[in-house]
Amino acid sequence: MSTSSNPATGAPKKNGIVEWIDYRLPIFTFMNHELREYPTPKNLNYWWNFGSLAGIVLVVMILSGIFLAMNYTAHVDHAFVSVERIMRDVNYGWLIRYIHMNGASMFFLVVYIHIFRGLYYGSYKPPRELLWWLGLVILILMMATAFLGYVLPWGQMSFWGATVITNLFSAIPLVGEPIVTWLWGGFSVDNPTLNRFFSLHYLLPFVIVGVVMLHLVALHTHGSNNPLGIDTKKNPKDSIPFHPYYTVKDMFGLGVFLVIYAAFVFFAPNFFGEPVNYVPANPLQTPSEIVPEWYLLPFYAILRSIPDKLAGVIAMFGAIFILFLLPWLDSSKVRSATFRPIYKQLFWIFLVDCIVLGWAGAQHPEGAPLLIGRLATAYYFLHFIVLLPLVSKFEKPRALPESISTPVLKTEKA
Amino acid sequence: MSINLRRALLPALGLLAALSVPAFAAEGEIKIPKQSWSFSGPLGTYDRAALQRGFQIYKEVCSACHAMSLVAYRNLTALGFSDAEVKAIAASVEVQDKEPNDQGEYVMRQGRAADHFKAPFANEQAARAANNGAYPPDLSLITKARVGGSDYLYALLTGYKPAPAGMTVPDGMYYNDSFLGHLIAMAPPLSDGAVTYADNTATTVPQLAKDVTTFLTWAAEPEMEERKRLGVKVVLFLLLMTGVIFAWKRKVWKDLH
Amino acid sequence: MSESAHASATHGQPGHGEGETRRDFLALAATAFAGAGAACALWPFIDSMNPAADTLALSTTDVDISPIAEGMRITVKWRGKPVFIDHRNKEQIDQARSVNLSELPDPAKDEDRAQKAEWLVMVGVCTHLGCIPNGQKQGEPRGDFGGWFCPCHGSHYDTSGRIRRGPAPRNLDVPPYKFTTDTTVSIG
């Protein structure tokens, strides 16, 4: 509260105990510096809410996951029933599981928006390349965690999803088969697989927490990017303290988000789910359709659009890894798409392309959907490898404003 | 120019979409008509009388082949049965005790409220052997485990029809409008008057199907009523909270603009 | 208040008393909402650690007591804990009932502990730190009072399961039970 701080400096009023601790372990100074005073561009729009939102969803996922783990049994004979026991017998077990289940979708939704915000406003550009990289590492860890977690209820889609995804590694020449056997701990997805998946599913979120810390260190080193994409350090009037301005704005965003999240949890809890995963795993019968969760569909479409097994796997992983090269593929000095007329168009086309890929990933891989998926895959790589380097070279950006506080100096000709 | 183009294109796109939907539907997609259920919508609840009638159908008809291993007799209190009634229902079956007796033998005993519904077959192999090789699925989660949910189940139960001309139905199979591929190994389970209701509800096939579907929906989502009730409170609270935070946010930022 | 106004001024905006009051009220209301919401949200998680519905449902155990001869003791499992059922003989009953209540660390009448004098039903968990007292099997030490003896820290219980000597603070607990027939006792 504003009344408990020294307003002149923004520092918290020192009391004896706080001072004693802070002198030895400066956590209060640190928190004050990073969460209160932290100078933030004053023109951040609501798209900037999604970073802190992702952090909060991560906490919700870990919390609900820990409580689910208390009642879950990682054994092929008991996993499905133990999840149903959570749903039926454990006090509020249904709530905790639906929070966790829908939380995964919400997490990806929030993070994807966060990433596309970064793409639009050029948040991956110098000096934030490593910030971008750490974000991508978080994304990859999230995908791994989500995949591992999806296996745990041991439904039909759990089992066959695990089978298909682990079999991707068999595409590796020479060592592929031994690697898959090693991943399984046997000759098919079975009890050892389920056990290790549970172990890793519990571990990875804490690794994510660690990378998030690094992500924040990198962020706070040079500060947030902003919708204009200009450096705000030069003009002190461009920055405002994080608290109360962005704490209250983030809280509001969180409130809106929670309403949407709660609507799914309480009124459409299986909206994102596959009905067939309420059928216990049967190693002798594959369901008529194997579809990953929606957040993996674009990558699944890329995998299926290439008829060669190894090439398909390479393309799928390449689709993620090419993002690491983005800061160098796009060499434009101007960050924000607001001042990049051609890149702005490319951004929207790319967004549509990703949605088309997601749609194609959910269809039977034949006929028109397959063709559309292939075209969208081709465009995905074309965007990064050809269009971005060319556009960043030849595009003529609009004039940048000097600072957030001062209006654009050189106005464009109307 | 571009606006004119859009004007010309939009109806064309709409027409295309309108044409393509039935085209897809005709091509193997099965249309599942929506029913009006007492449990639909954010405030929906289960009709207790329908639940009890549905349980009667399960007990007298479905349970001959289908297990419901995730549901326990004690859960039946949610249908409006008293503790004594539940005890009596449980006691009407004989189950094998999970613990051996002092002689080391597994003995049969009367069912207790804590027991789960007794399965008609000891295992999947036994179930298949007794059913021409087909496996009658466990019904505990059936409405959650099928695309279309309760509507699909109702459509399936009321979907038995004479096969269209030209289609041969193999022995032991039956034609069903709503089943994928239209050939189902389950004989029509419901017929008019298949059970005798204690109340005066009609026992036509659609009514029976509706009742048993209600019961099976409850079995799959026993938490639904509590979930929706709590959900209304939570969402209202969050809206109120977000409103107050928004006012605070506006106040804080007002100084800046 | 004046300090807060000064705070706004340092950021280059004028502060107004009335606006400040409103802002403080909104801050308080919003924080109260968020705090109350967070506190309520914790409850489902805490409650999930309480016994689940299936665990509670298993909390009744029916025991056939017809094979237990006089002077014999058996142990059955109820809620994952041992329950002692002791078919007492006359001597043991008399011993339990002749004790002067004032001698007992935790005074209780044997008549209140056993619904039928010859049948003693107790949770067989030492009230000190949860060990299982000896005395159920023939030849096990029964302590100085002919009942049970806890080997962990040396608590002596008498033939009514009452604590007589040692660190245990209470008598052995009597679970809720009733005789559903002459030969069946239902615990829980």
How is the secondary structure organized here?
The complex is a heterotrimer of chains A (414), B (257) and C (188).
Chain A: H1 16-24, H2 27-37, E1 39-41, H3 50-69, H4 79-88, H5 93-121, H6 129-151, H7 156-167, H8 176-184, H9 191-222, E2 239-241, H10 242-267, H11 297-305, H12 309-321, H13 326-329, H14 341-361, H15 367-394
Chain B: H1 2-26, H2 48-60, H3 83-91, E1 94-96, E2 108-110, H4 124-130, H5 149-157, E3 174-175, E4 183-184, H6 205-220, H7 224-254
Antiparallel strand pairs in B: 1-2, 3-4
Chain C: H1 2-10, H2 17-47, H3 53-57, E1 61-64, E2 73-78, E3 81-87, H4 90-97, H5 110-113, E4 119-123, E5 146-150, E6 155-158, E7 163-165, E8 177-179, E9 184-187
Antiparallel strand pairs in C: 1-9, 2-3, 3-4, 5-6, 6-7, 8-9
Q: If you had to describe this structure to a student in words, what would you say it looks like?
A:
- The complex is a heterotrimer of chains A (414), B (257) and C (188).
- Chain A is an all-alpha fold and 414 residues long.
- Chain A is 62% helix and 1% strand.
- Chain A is built from 15 helices and two strands.
- A two-stranded antiparallel ribbon of chain A has the order 1-2.
- In chain A, α14 packs antiparallel against α15 (367-394).
- With 257 residues, chain B is mainly α.
- Chain B is built from seven helices and four strands, in the order αααββααββαα.
- In chain B, the strands form two sheets. Chain B has a two-stranded antiparallel ribbon. A two-stranded antiparallel sheet of chain B has the order 3-4.
- In chain B, a hairpin with a 7-residue loop joins β3 (174-175) and β4 (183-184).
- The longest helix of chain B is centred in the last third of the chain and has 31 residues, at 224-254.
- Chain B is globular, with a radius of gyration of 25 Å.
- With 188 residues, chain C is α+β, with helices and mostly antiparallel strands.
- In chain C, 30% of the residues lie in helices and 22% in strands.
- Chain C is built from five helices and nine strands.
Helix content range of the residues of chain C, please? 25-40%
CATH class descriptor name of the largest domain in chain C: Mainly Beta
Please summarize the sheet with the most strands of chain C: 3 strands, antiparallel
N- and C-termini, Cα separation of chain C: 62 Å
What is the structural class of chain A? mainly alpha
Determine the mean pLDDT of chain C.
87
Q: What series of H and E elements makes up the topology of chain A? A: HHEHHHHHHHEHHHHHH
Oligomer: heterotrimer
Biggest interface in this structure? A-B, 31 and 34 residues
Shape of chain C: elongated
Overall morphology of chain A: globular
In whole angstroms, the N-to-C terminal distance of chain A is 47 Å
The value of Rg of chain C in angstroms is 29 Å
Major beta sheet, strand line-up of chain A: 1-2
On the 0-100 scale, what is the average pLDDT of chain A?
Answer: 93
Number of extended strands of chain A: 2
The total of helices of chain C stands at 5
Structural domains of chain C: how many: 2
Individual helix count of chain A? 15
Low-confidence segments of chain C = 1-15
Instruction: Characterize the largest beta sheet of chain A: strand count, sense, and whether it forms a barrel.
Output: 2 strands, antiparallel
